[in-house]
Amino acid sequence: MPNYSEKPTIIFDMDGTLLDLAYDDFIWNELLPIRYAEQHQCSLEQSKQTLFSFYQQHNHTLKWYSSRFWTSQVGVDVLAMQIEQKAKVAKREGCIELLTYLKENGYPIWLATNADYAGLQFKLEETGLRDFFDVIVSSETLGHAKEFIEFWQILASKHPFDAKNCYFIDDTEKVLNGAKLFGIEQLYSIQQPSSAKAPRETCNYPMLSALTDLIPILEAQTTEQAEEQKKYA
User: Fold this and answer.
1) How far is it, in rounded angstroms, from Cα 28 to Cα 35?
2) What is the CATH number of the domain that holds 109?
3) Contact at 8 Å (CB) between 209 and 217?
4) Average pLDDT over the chain, rounded to whole?
5) Are 47 and 37 spatial neighbours (Cβ–Cβ below 8 Å)?
6) Sign of torsion, CA 194 198 203 207?
7) Are 50 and 36 in contact (CB under 8 A)?
8) Counting Cβ atoms within 10 Å, is residue 230 exposed (0-12), middle (13-18) or buried (19+)?
9) Confidence category of residue 1, pLDDT binned at 50, 70, 90
10) Which of 12, 97, 117, 191 is the most buried (most CB within 10 A)?
11) What InterPro entries does the entry give (predicted)?
């Protein structure tokens, strides 16, 4: 008889999924250009152009997510700058409600982020979210960004999970594509990763408006599995 009692693993991204991406947008698109212009004695417009070129060059690579790399690249202590502004780190609406529901109902809860290890640690400390998770992984420690199937292969080798019985929620479509290539089928995006920007209108994956929208989806699956279980009783 099939075993339908095992809860699916729920894997979350961090920035733009559980946390408001407005903080990161502020750091990289507003504050760093100011600090770079001050450091290199150039205009703010020149600073923005230079940084944009850097961003385009390294987007979706491990370097993109590395505080150490950006510090060496731009001559500004990026991690210190992030910690300096840590009061702006905010949980997205429904974050605690969803994580509490999952914890109370016995779901394995994982955090898989492209944030480097140092950035991950300070955000976990600032938000108090650490204790919700059974597994916490930074792509820096696996050697591949989540956009690539290698991340998922190494993750599964270190922390085995059933891709067919798993939900993954992330605000970045390329990351979801990587998870899909690995074999995760239940994939969800976020309609409004940043409170400072308008909600998205389109996406190639179903979008959660509120994080708690995941609860009825999981409850529907539980009901469906219970009905399936009856067939084998």
Assistant:
1) 10
2) 3.40.50.1000
3) no
4) 93
5) yes
6) positive
7) yes
8) exposed
9) very low
10) 12
11) HAD-like_hydrolase_sf, HAD-like_sf, HAD-SF_hydro_IA, HAD_sf
CA distance 122 to 132: 16
| 69 and 171, same domain (yes or no) | no
Question: Phi and psi for 185 in degrees, rounded to 5?
Answer: -100, -30
For the chain, the domain total comes to 2
Range of the domain at 57: 22-87
Alpha carbons 117 and 137: distance in angstroms, whole number: 8
Other beta carbons less than 10 A from residue 142's beta carbon? 20
Helix-strand-coil split of the chain, %, nearest 5 = 55, 10, 35
- Give yes or no for residue 229 having a pLDDT over 80: no
DSSP-derived secondary structure letter, 233: -
CB-CB contact of 1 with 232 (8 Å)? yes
**Does one domain contain both 112 and 68?**
no
Are both 95 and 198 inside the same structural domain? yes
Region of 30 on the Ramachandran plot (φ > 0 left; ψ -120 to 50 alpha; else beta)? alpha
Which residue, chain included where needed, has tokens 């009901």? 223
Task: Read off the pTM.
Answer: 0.92
* pLDDT per position as a tens digit, 84-136: 999 999 999 999 999 999 999 999 999 999 999 999 999 999 999 999 999 99
